[in-house]
Amino acid sequence: MPELRKDPISDRWVVVATERGRRPSDFGGVEGTKMCAEAHVPTCPFCEGNEKKTPPEIVAYRQFGTAPDSPGWDVRVTANKFPALIAEGEIKRSGTGLFDMISGIGAHEVIIETPKHNLTLAEMELSQLDKVLWAYKQRIIDLEKDRRFRYILVFKNYGAAAGTSLDHPHSQLIATPITPRYVKLELTNARQYFQDKERCIFCDLMRQELDARARLVYENEYFVAFCPFASRFPFEIWIFPRSHQFSFQEIPDDQRMQLAGCLKDVLKRLKMLLNDPPFNYVLHTAPNPAPRPGRPGYWGTIEYDFHWHIEIIPRLTKMAGFEWGSGLYINPSPPEEAAKYLREVKV
Questions:
Q1: Active-site hit among 108, 117, 168, 170
Q2: Percent of the chain that is helix, strand, coil (3-state, to 5)
Q3: CA gyration radius for the chain?
Q4: DSSP one-letter code for 25
Q5: CA of 279: how far to CAs of 33, 233, 275, 282, 313, in Å?
Q6: In this predicted structure, what is the pLDDT of residue 173?
Q7: Residue 300 has what pLDDT?
Q8: Is residue 130 helix, strand or coil?
Q9: Cβ-count burial of 119 within 10 angstroms (0-12 exposed, 13-18 middle, 19+ buried)?
Q10: For strand 329-331 and strand 13-16, is the pairing parallel, antiparallel, or unpaired?
């Protein structure tokens, strides 16, 4: 029988349509991501040797002695050539009646994950994936120094159906002058839970998943990956640090390598099980802790009540009229079955 399940983190309801019960092979109509076979493409602006085709690099993990904006890098971060928000200017707030406006100030950057055009996160060495995570951390730390930015979101689009426009492996980062609505829902509910119980809701959720193990996909010493109880999408996966950490930026270096292992394992399982599907992932970390005028206690308990995490969303289904009209998601693959299939993959 179909079920409506409520996500305790966001208070979002999901329809788990068990009657539809779709197996991995049932998503055969979803076209797998076709990566270029070449390690270097002369026309690609992200390939090594084409550094002048991008804006100047902001930070890079480079081989010793190599100069900025030249070959010799492992990971490279630049401004997005076509930014959604611009960094120059001051925040101006205005409104007319019910309509509020804020100037489009922010930052939009590209994290080029490897010099090799055909090397995906699922296939790269752990040391290389660790450098990608290092770049995420460095950029969040630096951008938080700018008090105009309230939230910094790292995300990855993989495959055309997930929104990517360039094949070369890359992630993106956008800093915004507001806290996005979905993130604010997580923050607000986590704060309320902590006020009621003096416990982190994410820690409680993770312990429950570890006890049940029905939706568990992967675990190591420091990280846990599972299909959430109220999964919005088939084979959706969340990654949590086992210890309570409210900010991704606080992750120790040795744990970052463990995160690289967890992320690589999970992405490899998705690739092998679902024919290299398009996917998105997002990193939800704490908002910028800079004090806000008139709100000295804003997110004042966040160090105790929030828990950073990564959400991975394979793009196997499409939202239609019911989803757009109701705000409810219909998931045809129960997360318990999805996790079982993922666990059985031989990585």
A1: 170
A2: 30, 25, 45
A3: 20
A4: G
A5: 9, 11, 12, 10, 5
A6: 97
A7: 82
A8: helix
A9: middle
A10: parallel
- The phi, psi pair for 197, rounded to 5°, reads -120, -10
Regions of the chain where pLDDT drops below 70:
19-23, 25-35, 296-297
CATH entry, 3-344, from 3.90.740.10, 3.10.110.10, 1.10.3720.10, 3.30.428.10: 3.30.428.10
Pick the closest to residue 286 from 265, 300, 268, 296 (CA basis): 300
Q: Is the pTM of this model over 0.85?
A: yes
Work out the burial of residue 320: count CB atoms within 10 Å of its CB; fewer than 13 is exposed, 13-18 middle, 19 or more buried. exposed
* Cα 282–Cα 332–Cα 14 angle in degrees, nearest 5: 60
Cα 179 from Cα 84, distance rounded (Å): 16
Burial class (CB in 10 A: 0-12, 13-18, 19+), 93: exposed
Q: Map out the domains of the chain as residue ranges.
A: 3-344
Residues 280 and 163: beta-carbon distance below 8 Å: yes
Q: CA-to-CA distance for 28 and 11, rounded, in angstroms?
A: 32
Helix, strand, or coil (residue 321): helix
Is 170 tagged catalytic?
yes
Q: What is the pLDDT of residue 30?
A: 55
Question: Whats the size of the chain, residue-wise?
Answer: 347
Strand partners, 337: none
Quick count: other Cβ atoms within 10 Å of Cβ 198? 10
Bridge partners, 86 (sequence order): 105
- DSSP-assigned letters across all residues of 206-245: HHHHHHH-TTEEEE-SSEEEE--TT-SSTT-EEEEESS--
